Automatic annotation (TrEMBL):
<protein>
    <submittedName>
        <fullName>Extracellular solute-binding protein</fullName>
    </submittedName>
</protein>
<keyword id="KW-0732">Signal</keyword>
<dbReference type="Pfam" id="PF13416">
    <property type="entry name" value="SBP_bac_8"/>
</dbReference>
<feature type="signal peptide">
    <location>
        <begin position="1"/>
        <end position="20"/>
    </location>
</feature>
<dbReference type="InterPro" id="IPR006059">
    <property type="entry name" value="SBP"/>
</dbReference>
<dbReference type="InterPro" id="IPR050490">
    <property type="entry name" value="Bact_solute-bd_prot1"/>
</dbReference>
Amino acid sequence: MKPRFFAALLAALMIFSLTGCEKSLLDKDNPVTLTFWHVYGEQSGSPMDELVDEFNRTVGAEKGVRVTVTATSSASQIGAFLLQAQAGGSELPEMPDVFTCHIGDAMALGAENVVDWNDLFTEKEREEFVSGFLDDGTADGKLLVFPMSKSTHVLMLNGSAFDRFSAATGAQYSDLTTWEGFYQTAGAFYDYSGGKTFCALDYPLRAVELRAMEQGAEDFYTEDGWYDTDNAIFKESWLEFARALVQGHIQMSDRYSNTQVMTGETISGIGSSAAILYYNDKVSYLDGTVEPMNLQVLPMPKTDGADALMTQAGVGLCAYKTDEKRAEAASLFVHWLTEPERNLDFVAETGYMPVRNGAFDAIENYTDFPEPQQAYQNLYAALNTMRQEYTPVSEPRFSGYYGKVNALYDALREAQKAYPARLANGESVDELANETWTMLCSMG
C-alpha cells in the first residue's frame, strides 16, 4: 500500500464527524483491542493483514485501538464458523469484535446482535458510497454489513493456450461473450484437445441463476430458501450446464478454479474477480512444461439478445454488539479502511470493485497495479464493461442456503469423477444430466 502522510489528520476529522461534540471513549494510554476475522486471503502477508498492521502503527496507536486478526476463512465458510463461535464451546476462537461476512450470515447471527452502521456513519458519509452496495448489506432498515469492496464473476483464461486453440480452430474470445458461444466453445475445445476440459467453475449455481433470469425466469426460490424445481426455465438453465459438465466440457473446480488453470488442467475458469490475487504469471503443466500465463479476463457470458445481469458478490464488514467503546473503536477502524484513496489501493491490488461513488472512474487512470500489471488492466477493462452494460443482482440471502449449495457442489465434484466411464459404458448425456438435477432437488 502507498504511504499516506495525512492519515492522522483524516482520522481526527472522521472521529469528529462521528462523535460531534461528544467526548470520545477511546484512550491512547488505555488501548482497546479488537479481534478481527476476515476472508481476504488465508495466506500470510495478505493485503488485509498489511492494512491491519498499518492501522495499528498509525491511527490505531494514536487513538488507542489495536486490531488483532484471530482467524481467517473462506467467504463460503465464515458464516458457519461465526455461528459456532456465537454458540460457544467450540474449538474456534471467541466471537470476534469485527468480522467480514455476507448479509445472510449477519441475519443468522441476529440483527439485534450486530452493530447498525447507520448509527456510526452520517447520512452525508453514506451518500459517498454506491447506494446499491449499501442496500446489499441492509436488512429491515439496518445497515448490518458495511461495504469495503465488491466482486463479481468473470471468465479468466490461459491466453497462451487459448491462442494455440484459436490458431487451430478459429475460436475467438468474442465467441465467449454469450452462454451459447461459451458452451459451444467448451465442446469445440474438448474435441480439439483430445478430451481436455475447457473451463472450471467455482459458482455454477449463480451462473445458472443469472442465465435463467436473463431468459425471463422469475420467483424460482421457495419460502424455505431453495429452488422451485417446477420452474421450467430454471431447470433448463441447469440442464444446459449439466450436459456440458457430464461430457467433460466443463467441470466443478476444486473450490477455486485458478488451481486448475495454473496447472493446465483447464485453460479457463469462471470465478470471483478477486481470484486474480491467486493467479501466477506462468502455467506449470503436470508434465513439467512451463509457459507464460498471459492471463486474459473477459466479462461473464450473457444470454444472447437479453439484458445482461451480473452478480454483486463479496462480504462486508460487521461489528458484534458489546459496548459503546468497542463500537467507537470499530467505527474508527472501518472509517479508516474505507477512506477513498485507501479503498482504491485495496481494490486495485485484490481484484475487487471500489465501493465509493466516482472511484470506478478513477481506477481507469490508475497506474499502481501489482505485477503482472497487464493482467490487472485486463480485469478492470472487463469490470468496466460489466459496470456499463450489466445490471448487478444481489446474491440469495436465505438462512442455510450456502450450506445446501456447498453440499451440492461437493456431491457434483465426487460425481464428475465417474462421468467419463459411465458415458463410455453406454449411459446417455441426458440421463446423467437429469441425475444432477435430482441431486439439486434433493437439497431442498
